[in-house]
Design brief:
About 35% of the residues lie in helices and about 40% in strands. The protein has about 90 residues and is an alpha+beta fold. The protein has one domain: Kinase associated domain 1, KA1 (TATA-Binding Protein, 2-Layer Sandwich). It has a 5-stranded antiparallel sheet with strand order 1-5-4-3-2, covered by helices on one side. Strand 3 and strand 4 form a beta hairpin. The protein is globular and about 35 Å long.
């Protein structure tokens, strides 16, 4: 599943919040990171979070390897709702 939201947070802040959220709430391990992307894997699935600046806001994209109603997708929706939206 793919999701996208806009926020006033800086991309670095979004990725830091993602790291904290997925480690603490979902017990996932960070498996890959770049300047604008972080990927987490675990028993409940895999998620990749991307954050990049677009004009005056940050675009946050999240992609899971499972469908709606499964653990990683539910956790990803919770993460996206936890950051302020524009």
């Amino acid at each position: 599943m793919r999701f996208q939201v806009r926020t006033e947070l800086a991309p670095e802040d979004v990725l830091q919040r993602a790291a904290e959220f997925y480690r603490q709430k979902a017990n996932l391990k960070e498996t890959d990171r770049s300047d604008d992307t972080v990927t987490f894997d675990g028993r409940i699935g895999r998620v990749t979070v991307r954050a990049h600046r677009h004009y005056s806001y940050t675009v946050v994209e999240a992609e899971t390897d499972r469908g709606v109603g499964l653990d990683i997708t539910d956790m990803t929706l919770r993460f996206l709702y936890s950051i302020p939206h524009l």
